Structures are given as structure tokens and as C-alpha cells.
Amino acid sequence: MAKSMTYAILEGIQAEMRRNKLLTLLYEYQKPVAGGEKGAINLEAEFGRWRARFCAIDEQWIVGSCLGMSMIGVPAIAHIPSMTTFIPYELMFNHAGKLRHMTGGQAAFPMVLWADMMGRVPAQGGQHADAGLESSYARLAGLKVVIPSNPYDAKGLMIAAIRDVDPVIFCQYPMPSSGPPVPDEPYVVPIGEAAVRTEGSDLTIVGYAPQTVEIGKAVEELKKEGIGAEFLDPRTLAPLEGVMETILKSVKKTGKLLTSDDGSYSFSNCTEIVARVAEALPGTKIKRLAFPDAPAPGAPEMLSYMRVSAVHIVAAAKKLVKG
Amino acid sequence: MAKSMTYAILEGIQAEMRRNKLLTLLYEYQKPVAGGEKGAINLEAEFGRWRARFCAIDEQWIVGSCLGMSMIGVPAIAHIPSMTTFIPYELMFNHAGKLRHMTGGQAAFPMVLWADMMGRVPAQGGQHADAGLESSYARLAGLKVVIPSNPYDAKGLMIAAIRDVDPVIFCQYPMPSSGPPVPDEPYVVPIGEAAVRTEGSDLTIVGYAPQTVEIGKAVEELKKEGIGAEFLDPRTLAPLEGVMETILKSVKKTGKLLTSDDGSYSFSNCTEIVARVAEALPGTKIKRLAFPDAPAPGAPEMLSYMRVSAVHIVAAAKKLVKG
Amino acid sequence: MGPVKEVKRKKAAKPAGEEFTKDFLVGLLRRMMEIRGFEDKVFELLARNVLQGASHVYAGQEAVAVGACAAIDQRDYITSTHRGHGHSLALGADLKLMMAELCGKATGYCKGYGGSLHITDVSLGILGMNGIVGASHLFAAGAAYGIKVKGTDQVAVSFGGDGSIQGNFFSSAANAAAAWKLPWIGIIENNGYQIWVRAADVYGITDLAQRAHGYGIEGRVVDGNDVLAVYNAAKYAVEKARAGNGPTIIECKTYRWYDHYGAGGAKIGVDGAFGLGYRSDRELRDWMAKDPIPRFRRFLVAEKVLTEQRADEIVAEVRQAVEDAAAFAKAQPLPKPEDGLRNVFAEGAVPLHTC
Amino acid sequence: MGPVKEVKRKKAAKPAGEEFTKDFLVGLLRRMMEIRGFEDKVFELLARNVLQGASHVYAGQEAVAVGACAAIDQRDYITSTHRGHGHSLALGADLKLMMAELCGKATGYCKGYGGSLHITDVSLGILGMNGIVGASHLFAAGAAYGIKVKGTDQVAVSFGGDGSIQGNFFSSAANAAAAWKLPWIGIIENNGYQIWVRAADVYGITDLAQRAHGYGIEGRVVDGNDVLAVYNAAKYAVEKARAGNGPTIIECKTYRWYDHYGAGGAKIGVDGAFGLGYRSDRELRDWMAKDPIPRFRRFLVAEKVLTEQRADEIVAEVRQAVEDAAAFAKAQPLPKPEDGLRNVFAEGAVPLHTC
Ligand SMILES: Cc1ncc(C[n+]2csc(CCOP(=O)(O)OP(=O)(O)O)c2C)c(N)n1
Ligand SMILES: Cc1ncc(C[n+]2csc(CCOP(=O)(O)OP(=O)(O)O)c2C)c(N)n1
Ligand SMILES: [Mg+2]
Ligand SMILES: [Mg+2]
Question: What is the DSSP letter of B95?
């Protein structure tokens, strides 16, 4: 059985905790425990409670303390649950993202905010079925934002995030165990590099995390109809410069850009990518699909009507390509 | 002497507090007091301390209590200082923006978050010289965001915000007392309508709040050089549908769009406008000017190097128009 | 500030100056039975995978909701939490509309938008169940401020778990309520766990009511499985608040029978409360022995307020009402898909972006 | 929890088991004089519009910074606030680099990026002055957690005003520090005002140290204008923390002489402390009579630790050092404009977007 997202992430953290005797994980109720073929991981059992600590329901503590300890050279990972993504927003904005600059380079926060993202789950209602929050962080100066779509990228990006001396937001959406097999050894997926999932020359499709599942299906479907889509997964949202090189190269070839997003439409995830393409390559034909600017309703009928699915992507791609 | 931004806003609040005997203002240290030719305004003296209350340094209380009281039919204004804009982010996101939807339309928050925005002030350093934060709010479902550029719009938009049954973020940047004279009587500037500041057919320039000063200068300069710029001020950032009608109409005419922004570049203010134009009008020549994705440094030399000024706008406009 | 006080149940269960009527006392028992009956049904539907979503079952804590809600009137407000079914039912919410909402039906309390986590009936004074831990306290304190502006003698009561006193919201509520004597009553339902985390492992205090003193608020500790003890403490706090004498924080020590949410591990017909890794079955059995419902029933029978036979009848009536509610919910229509775009703002619908 | 304790200055100013050396005592006086001298100069430069930006002048509160910082070592950490000049200087920060930073010069402590609000010297253990009220406490408590991970006997001390105990951060720091006995010392500099807002109007408690008890932390109140009283309380807390016995919160009652920030209303050569609308001149005069510096000087002279003549010499030396610092700062180069794009991340520069 392939490694799960969580197993892959914990495997990466475990390796880094073995390497760096100070690296510390603070969390709430999501135990750093996972079972898999390669044996169970249990970070509290292995590293003790000081280095793998459950906390009160206080995300401000979890993130703020990781900032404080990372400032004194104890690198730290703050793991917070999905409905609390914005509780530490002020901390990341006014402190993590700014203190290096304000102190002329003296302060450093070698920390990772491991933010669980629920995604568009049915039967929960607005507070527990959100997506797209990563873009609020991607806006903020001094922060890096990564967002893996499969266990392989998840492990490699988590290790990259831990080793980075700058604060990194690591966004974990629930994703299936697809993609390349996850090596047991530590490895790095560099921050700032997009992945080319499939090559094609008729149009460029950009999307990440949960939408990669729908895009993947759509790309197969389009292939059957003779349309070659180049599917790019940014994996990093900030800084975006490296990612844009890959995207611009593709759009230069295809002349058409389709983005698909589980987050909301406005001021949002793929907006920045679309705007940069529009600035750099005038004449590009562009289409953005996204969840509407609305909370997620509980009832599954309403929710699924609002989400972008493979069917929508196929239809939009055909329209872009055929006229 | 023309009315100041703050006078105009307080005049609007005063009129509404007289009209609605429950309307309440909570604030921190920024007294709801202003002097002007038409006489001094002092809301605490006029309405008593329960309805115009200073609070502890606790922006969560100021905003959270306004949510709570507005739920029981006591409309409220929460005034918070500039360096604290994101402390109530979670409250506005998970509660103000969602509860109406989650309760099937039962909950209502007739409240205004009056957010002071510092703008790019020199000699303060990153936490006290920020701009562009309105876009983080504009992303969130269920919230309206307005951002006046002169005292006339400020008063009219504040009254519109107070009368709106939905939660509204009212962003006040320090702005000069320019623009149309401010009537003493209450009036409304409707939420969701852009203003056409100057007409022109060579290119469209979009910007708001502090950048309107620079754009205004640039438009004059361009006129001298024979370039007719159409200058639009969105005034509302969310919902954006009405504003886009005006912008698209203009860009359809000019074929060129220049945006200029005191906020940062990425995932930011004018990004959404650019992306919507690119989607709707492929072939448009587009340029975005903005503060870089960096905190504001203290030293004025560094800061002013980073800000967009009229000179930059003129140069970019000429380049767009001439090729 | 005095020390933390333990409010003991009065010998004859009658607070000074108040005679309980039979109807009142039997009403308390019936409400607790309704909650238990509803939650047992929810648990069964979860175990059978008929119900989707995260229902946080309230069984075991009935005395808190019923005791506290009996102390307030129709004019007052409450705010509630992820574990909120009990609070709504204690205020008299309709079993049918509750169940319809849990089933995501168009006629449920929130028209299917909310589900278990957000059941709200503003006409009952419920300002919303809120799935974000601690938020209930801040909104109730805010409503209490609004009451001062209105100049009425209403009160606002918030419910929150032992997890709700930390985090972002409680502190803001408590400080302002203390400074300005707001008519706020904070009920802390200390069931010992925050999911699986023990309160004792993450707090430096044992009696959570002690937290109140740091703000200058009176804090009380009561037996949360004794409906009259909760009622008495709440009544005291409500009267104090109505008289303009400010807030009270009441910690109710209690226990939840089932797991944090859902019916994980439970097979149909087999009790899913036992065998949870983070607590001992023995601890659970000790608390089950203090079940607030039979305890109060025995008391009422002993005090001759009720006969065993009448009590059995109530049990049967409640069971029938719950079955009717489940049948009602099942028969209700689903929401229209496009309605998800409504209720974002008071007017209109937001645009769809799937095409 | 016991009641709030008042730590009284020992008669002979010697805590049990410790003999102060003359050097130590004179050092305390000199540090206080340095802070006063520096702040007087800053005030003058502000009044003359030579200095830009928001300097929050520390004059009047010197005994707090100096007393507390004397109780810790080079290996320990502090976090500071918008009113932070005094904390840095109490740790021995360089007057010249301080002044250069206030003047926005490339050679200042933060290379001109920070200004008054953010002066930081990590080599002195200063984890940053932070302009967001209350954040100092959370970061120090976080550092204290890191100390536990490292397994050293360091401590982390945070300074914060009377305004810093409310809001978002203090509560998170206090709860965790209490639960896990972190080596955190929270110093509350209660100068009675939050800009113009009186603490008494926005809190339900009078002694802010009482807030500690709600978390299970020992809270102490000391005379913040008595440098040895502050030192004794801090020393007690530091030793307790080093021994693994957890956090202490120390409220120092003090007063700031000038307005919240800047030198508004002051004419050159005229004292800008008086005539502020929100407080009486009389209140200020009462506090000026308790000026920590002459008070300690008189004490040292009376105890024959120092002669009046030597004290006058120190005053002159300090004055000279401050003048040298101002001259140094004036002569320093400005930062390069394009450096604003650096130090966003550890490496490289972010792109400019003006063209
Ligand atoms: C701010 C916040 N953090 C985390 C969660 C996830 N969460 C939901 S319920 C819960 C435990 C709550 O414990 P407690 O307050 O004791 O209430 P109980 O479940 O015991 O009734 C947690 C951590 C949340 N909903 N909100
Ligand atoms: C969270 C936050 N809210 C508001 C402000 C604006 N502000 C700066 S200093 C200050 C007053 C601080 O009072 P206190 O903590 O007593 O410190 P003092 O100025 O008296 O030293 C305020 C409100 C801020 N910097 N941070
Ligand atoms: Mg609990
Ligand atoms: Mg103060």
C-alpha cells in the first residue's frame, strides 16, 4: 500500500528530528502518529513530550511559541487544525513576515506553519469545509507558501520547509495516495518550482491540491477528444517568480490558460497567476474556474453544485481551444 | 476650510446615531472627536459612554462585541487602529462572513469594521507603515469592502455601510481634504459603484486611496503630453461585480489598463481587477505597478524608492500607449 | 475576590424564597429525557451511516443545558458550541426541525446550510451554534454589551467546554464583562476532555472557574450532573446580572458518554462509549453511575413529585416524539442546489464560477 | 494560589543571602542615568524635529528596566515593546548604534530598517522590540519553551505595559507557561495609561498581577520606581525559573513622564510633560517626586556607596556619552534605497514594481 499524505509528512519530520536534536513539533489534537507498511511512526514516543507536544485549544500559542523558540535557534513546526487557519494570521503577518526586515536581518524564524486544510467536505457547513485560504498567506511579505498535491511532494516540501531559515506555510489538503512512490529516505522538493504533470500544446491548465484530481480526470478525457492539455501544478504559491517561469513558458506555447480552483474566485488563488500571464503575454485566452465567493453549505446537493469538477474543466477547455 | 476625512466620517456616524438610537461605536484610543467650521463633533459627549465607548487594547473585543451586539439588533461600528487590521481577521472570516449562510439566513450582522490604514508612512518600520490589507478582506465570502479616496466618498460610504444589513469593512487611509465639498446632510454613496475621476480614451488607469493622489498628478502630466487617460476609482473592492462593469466599459474603449497600488504586488489589490479584465477582454495591454512584496522599511530613502509615484505612472502609461 | 465557591445542592432542592412547582420540576426531567432520547437516536443514525457530518453527541451532560436554560426567559440570549443539540433542545427547540437540519433537509432549522454544528433558532434567542471553540463566549458578552445599550434587563448566556477558556475569545469576553459589569453568564461545561486531551495536561489550574478571578469576575464550581445545582447557580447569576451586578462564570463538572463526535467504533446495538483509548472504561462507568437523569428521577419520585408510572409514560412519550422527528426528517425535501449561492449577503445570489 | 503579594524593598536593600557590591549598585544608578540622558536627548531632537518617527520615551520608568535586567545574565533573553529604548540600554546596548537607528542610518542597530520601534541586538539576547502590544509576552514564553527543549537553565523575560495583559497574546503565554512551568518572567510596567486610556476604566481588576492567578501563576506587585525592589522581585523570579519552578508575573507600578510618544506640545527648552488633557499636572508632580534616579542616588549616598561628587561626575560622563552618540549618528551614512528590497527573505532581494 502506498504511503498516505500524513505518513509521508511525518516520515519527513521524523528524519529531520533525528538529524536536528532541537527540532520541535507543537500540535493540538492531531497526534503525530501514523501507521504504514514501513512501521508505525509516533513522534511523541520517539522524541519525548517536550519535542512533540500537544497543547490547549490555543492556536495562537501553538504558532506564537514556535515563532518565539525558532528565534532562539530551536527550529519548530506548528501544526494547527483546518478550521483555525486564520487565527495565527496576525502573527504570521506582523511578526513572522516582518521581523527579519525590521531588524535589518537579525531576526530569523526557522519555523513551519503546518496548516491543515479541510477542503470542500460535505455535511459540515461553512466553518468546516473551507478551501483557498493559502492565498491570504501568499499575499504577505516574508512568508513562503507551499501546497503539495501528493505524498511525494508533501514529504519533499516538508523537508525543504524545515530546512529553510525563512518561515514557511505548509498547506495540507486531504489528498489521495497517488503520484510517485515515496522513498523512505529524506529528500527535498525545492520551494519555488512548479511541476509539469502532463505535457501538451493545445492549452495550459493550472491547478493544485484537491483540484488536481479533477484536472487529472479532465486531461484524460480531453486526450480522448484529441486535445493536448499541459497540466501544471505550482506547488509553491509564494514566492511565485520561479513558478511563473514554468507557467509562462507553457502559455507562450499554447496561448491559452485555464485555471481551476477549490478556493473562492475573487482576490484568490489562481488570480495572481492569471494576472501575471495577462501582463506578460497579452492576447492569451484565459478562463478561471473556481468555487463561488460563498461559504460552503452543509447539504451535499448545494455543495457539489458549486464545486468545479472534471466535467466543467473539460467543457471550459474545449471552449477555449475551439473558440 | 474643507472638511477632513475624519470629520466627514464622524459627521456621517453622528447623523446615523441621531437617527438610530441603538447605533453604537466601540473604539480604542482614537477618540470620535473632530473640530471643523461647522462645529465640533464629540460622540461620547453627545451620545454617552455606552454608545461611544473606548476599550482596552483588545481589538478582538472591539470587533467581536460589535458582532455580538449587532446579532441582537444593536447596529455597531468597531473602530480599530492601523497596526491591528488583521487581529480580527478570523472573526470576520469564520463568523461575520459565514453565519448568515450557515444559519440559512437567520443571523445578520449589521456592523461596520472601521479599519484605520496607516499607508506607507516613513520612519516607522514594517508594522506601522502597511497598506493593501483590504485585499485580504476582499477575498472573504459574505463581507463587503469599501475604500474611499476623499472626504465626500468617505461620508457617503460610511452611511451606506451603516445602513447595510451585511457586515462592511470600511478602510480609512489618511487622505487629503480634496474632492467634492462634503454636504452637512446625510447622503449615501452606494456600495459597489466605481467613480470615473477623469475621462479619456487612450488608456484606463485604476487605483484607489493613497495612489489616487499620484494618479491624479500623472493624469495631468499625461494630458500635457497629449495622452487622455480615463481614471477610475473602484471605491468598493467586494463585491466587485458592479465596479467591473465600469472598468470593462472603459477598457473596451481604451484597450489598455494600468493599475497602481500602494499595497504589495502579489495576490493583491488590483490583481483581481487585472485578472477579470484579462478574462473578459483578451488582447488588452496590461501593466500593474505596486509596492514590492516587502515590508515597509523605516528609513525614508528606502521607502520612497519602493513606492509608486506619479513619475512611474507617467512612464508606464506612455509605454503602454506608445508601444 | 473570594475563593472559588462550590454551590451545593440545597437539601430540599429549594433555593431560598423559591418554591418549585411540580410542573417545573417534571419539566426539567422531561427536557433531559428529550435530549437523551434525541442524542440516542442521532447516535444510532450515525452508527448506521444514515446521518452524515460531525454530530457531537451531548449525552451525559443534559443537566447542564437544562439547568442553565431553565434559569433564563424567552427574552434572553444564548450562544452555543459544536456540542449544541442539548442547548437548543433545553430551550424548547422543535425535535423535528432539529432532525431535519441534521439530515441536511430544506426545511431544517438552517434550511440545510448548517447541519449539526450550526443549528440556530433566533426566535428562541439562540444566537447561533458556533463551531469555533470559544467564540460563543465572545458573542454572548458582545450581546450583553448590546443589552446595556438597549437598557433592558435581559441576560446573555454562553456555553463552552473546558477547551473554551483558552484561545482567542474567552479573555476578551471576560475582561470587558468585568470592567463594565455586563449581564453575561459564562457556563463552562468541564467534561474533562478536549477531544482526547485532558484539561489537566494543558492548564495550570484545576478548577477552571479560577480563571474568572484574574479578570475580577466571580467564579463558581457546581456539580454539572445535578440539574438543580446548575439551576440554582445559574438563577443566582441571572438575577445578579439583571440587577446590574455583572457577570458570573459557572464551571459545571460533568462528562460526555460517547466519543468526541460521531459514533466511531460503535456497532449497531453495541454501546460505542467504551473502549476509547484515551480514557478508562472504569472512569466512564463511574460517571454513568452519576447519570443526571435517573438521579433526578429518583429524587422526584422520592419527593413524591412524580410516580414511577408517570415517569415511564414520559419516557415513552419522548421516545415516540423522537421517532416521529426522525420520520419527519426522512420525508423532507432536499435543498435546491442553486440555493448554495444565496444567503451570502442579505440580498441576491453570488455568481457561479463552474463555467 | 495565595493573594497578590507586595514585594517590599528590604530595609537595608539587601535580599537574604546576597551582599551587593558597590560596583553593582553604582552600575544600577549609572544605567538609569544613561537611559534618562538618552531619552532627554531623544526628546530634544523630537521637539526640534531633527528626529522623525514615533519614539516612545521611557523617562520615569528607568527603575523597571534596570532592576529587571540586572537580575538576568548575558545568556538570557528579553522581549520588548514600542517603549523599548530603556530595555535595550539596561542590557548595555551601545548608545551610538541606538541613536543611529533612531536617525534611520545604515549603521544603526537595524541598519535603518527598524527605527525606534524595533531596535534589536540579538547578541545582547534581545529578541526584538515589537510594536504590537502584548506580542512581547507570547514570544518570550515561546522562547521559554525553547529553553526547555534545549535543556538549559536560561530564562526569558518579557516587558509589557498595563495595556499588554489584554488582547491576543498574554493569555496564550500565561496559560502554557503555567501548565508546563516554563522559565518565563512577565514584567508588567503599569504606568496607569494606555495612551490616554486609564487602566482602571477598562479592567475589572486594580492590581494587574491578579490576572496571573487565573492561570495558576504567582503574581507580584512591586514599587516600579524602586530599582532594588524591582531587582529583588526579578531575582526571585529568575532563580525560581532556573530551578524549574515556573513562571512569575511581576507588576511594577510606575509612571511615564512625557506624552505617549513624541514631544508633542513641547517647545524647545520647555518641558512637554505637563498640560496633557488626560491627566493632571499634580498627578505627574507626585510621580516626579518619586523619580527613581535621585531617590536611588540619595540612598547610595546615605549608605556611603557613593559620594555626591562621584555622582555628579557620572552625570557628566553620561551627558558626554549621549552627546557623542548624537554626533556619531548625525555623521553616519544613509541606507542605500535599493536595500529596502533585501532582508525580506534570508537570501536575495524581491523584485521592484515601480516600472
Ligand atoms: C479554535 C478552534 N480550535 C480547534 C477546534 C477543533 N475542535 C473542535 S471541538 C474541539 C474540542 C473542544 O473541547 P471542549 O471545549 O472541552 O468541548 P467538548 O468537545 O468537550 O464539549 C476541538 C479542539 C475548533 N473547532 N476551534
Ligand atoms: C495590538 C495593538 N493594539 C494597539 C496598538 C496601538 N498602541 C501602541 S502603544 C499603545 C498603548 C500601550 O499602552 P501600554 O501597554 O500601557 O504601554 P505604555 O505605552 O503605557 O508603555 C497602543 C494602544 C498596538 N501597537 N498594538
Ligand atoms: Mg471538554
Ligand atoms: Mg501604560
Answer: I
